[in-house]
Design brief:
- Helices cover about 45% and strands about 15% of the residues.
- By secondary structure, the chain is α/β, with parallel strands linked by helices.
- The protein folds into 2 domains: about 5-220, Aldolase class I (TIM Barrel); about 240-505, UDP-N-acetylmuramoyl-L-alanine:D-glutamate ligase, CATH 3.40.1190.20.
- The protein is elongated.
- The model is unreliable at about 370-380 (pLDDT under 50).
- Bound molecules: ligand 3NM and magnesium ion (MG).
- Ligand 3NM binds next to helix 9.
Length: about 500
């Protein structure tokens, strides 16, 4: 039997979730909305009631040809004649369940680590329920919150070991995150989930059919921020002038949620490179702004608790609109507030590019979306090779682009990697040079969505070459005189490129 795992409904019979709802009616509505498989999960009813309820649900699911599984209880599955069971690590063992249910039954197993996933796949489970993805009030006693990155590492462990087992993920999945979860747990050339399992997103919804329909349509269409999966060409500087020219022509909105120190400077940089800046830290405005086709920078240089809520509103709005988001986790490891902010933002939003210095990127890399693994951000002791590994694997894990700035900038999309040695030491002696590089990159990404790494490269080169040219000028005597001349040179590169003069790029 070919089972469609794409939208997997797990039921709940507690008052908190079911409220006064009638479970059989909810299940029927959910199937009509697009649910493809159902698991009857009821931790409180007595055995006789479980069997009675299972039979009642089965009468409905059978009408639609949708399989019904029972949570935990192999005996109830046999007694009610349903298609299978879902067992956890503490339930009956897989081999015994298979013996009792026979080869045609569908048996799913919960896995919360690579080890558990490999063990169940090595047996003869039909599918795995991977989780817990996000913390969820529906199941509070979960062993670990693994985030998208944890799901992804379980999927790659399965793939590396040649297991073709089906997979769904579970825990806190809803309409606002399902596309990101499918995108960030998958990869263009590797394994990906066969579906998502939800409880409250459908059972607790006021209109279960409508919720199922919404989830279904999100699952079957790509995330708005997804870049086409076609293989990216080698990265060269050849198309950089085109990107600079396009930026000036399109003049995209460049929305900065940035710190108090650099707002004015960042707005000036954005104007000089040809973008149209708005400096707004008000998350409530973001939904309107996100519709204007631009990009967003989230720079947590002067983060506050209220700021994090605003960032989240904005990131969610830009994610939904497909507008690129650059994350600048300033001082990421410095305080608990900042570590928490990074964790929350990474768990709840997609960042098309994360940029930071070595300490910041190390901190971000040490967190798996939800889980803190305790990487500290000390002084640099890393070799170039180690830094490259961190950058490449973070980008691969997040399925985005990562930039680690430093004397040599390292840029990767998880596959390709480039090293950029442009720039000038004056950049390290003025305020906001890193922040405004983030602004620059985000503007380039707004007009080059199909290759965001190339967009970032173009931004970095324009920015750092302008700094070199400015620093060499006779009228620049130090960081103070450098700043206005740097703006002039950004502007000059844009003007020259517009006229077809690309000689500035020779410095790259
Ligand atoms: N199993 P919701 S998490 C039933 O991690 C269940 O194995 C989990 O509920 C696991 O969709 C979970 O409402 C609850 O967040 C999922
Ligand atoms: Mg169980």
């Amino acid at each position: 039997m070919v089972v469609d795992y794409s939208l997997y409904l797990v039921t709940d019979s507690t008052k908190a979730i079911l409220k006064d709802g009638h479970l059989p009616s909810i299940v029927k509505a959910a199937i009509e909305g697009g649910v493809t498989i159902v698991q009857y999960r009821d931790k409180t009813s007595d055995t006789a009631d479980l069997i009675k309820n299972a039979k009642e649900l089965h009468a409905i699911t059978k009408q639609y040809g949708v399989p019904l599984l029972i949570n935990d209880r192999v005996d109830v599955a046999i007694a009610s004649g349903v298609e299978g069971v879902h067992i956890g690590q503490d339930d009956m063992d897989l081999a015994t369940a298979r013996n009792l249910l026979g080869k045609d039954a569908i048996i799913g197993v919960t896995a919360q680590s690579e080890e558990e996933a490999l063990r169940a796949a090595g047996g003869d489970a039909d599918y795995l329920g991977l989780g817990t993805v996000f913390a969820t009030p529906t199941k509070e006693n979960t062993k670990s919150i693994v985030g998208c990155a944890g799901v992804r590492s379980m999927l790659s462990a399965l793939s590396v070991n040649n297991h073709k087992i089906k997979t769904v993920c579970i825990g806190g999945i809803n309409a606002s995150n399902v596309q990101r979860v499918l995108y960030q747990t998958g990869s263009s050339d590797g394994p990906s989930l066969d579906g998502v399992a939800v409880v409250s997103a459908i059972i607790a919804a006021s209109d279960p059919k409508e919720s199922a329909q919404e989830l279904k349509s999100l699952i079957t269409s790509p995330a708005p921020f997804a870049t086409s999966s076609s293989k990216k060409t080698d990265i060269t500087t050849e198309s950089v002038p085109e990107a600079v020219k396009k930026l000036g022509e399109v003049s995209p909105l460049c929305h900065n949620m940035t710190n108090l120190v650099v707002q004015n400077f960042a707005a000036n940089v954005a104007i000089c490179i040809g973008a149209s800046p708005i400096m707004s830290n008000n998350g409530l405005e973001a939904r309107d702004l996100a519709k204007l086709g631009g990009s967003l920078v989230v720079n947590m240089g002067t983060v506050t608790p209220e700021g994090v809520s605003n960032y989240l509103l904005a990131v969610t709005a830009y994610n939904a609109a497909g507008g690129p988001v650059v994350f600048d986790p300033v001082g990421a490891g410095a305080t608990q507030q900042r570590r928490d902010a990074v964790k929350t933002l990474m768990a709840e939003g997609y960042f098309d590019l994360i940029k930071g210095n070595e300490g910041e990127i190390k901190t971000v890399a040490g967190m798996r979306g939800e889980q803190q693994k305790g990487v500290d951000s000390g002084a640099s002791t890393l070799s170039m090779e180690e830094k490259s590994d961190i950058v490449r694997s973070l980008a691969h894990r997040e399925r985005n682009v990562v930039l680690m700035t430093g004397k040599v900038d390292i840029l990767s999309d998880g596959q390709r990697i480039v090293f950029i040695e442009n720039g000038h030491e004056y950049l390290a002696n003025i305020t906001g040079s890193g922040c405004t590089l983030g602004t620059t990159i985000s503007a380039f990404m707004a007009v080059n969505k199909d290759d965001k790494m190339l967009a970032a490269l173009a931004g970095i080169l324009m920015y750092e070459i302008a700094a070199e040219v400015a620093a060499r000028r006779d009228d620049v005597r130090g960081p103070g005189t450098f700043v206005p001349v740097f703006l002039d040179e950004l502007y000059a590169i844009r003007e020259n490129t517009q006229k077809g003069d690309h000689t500035w790029l020779k410095a790259a």
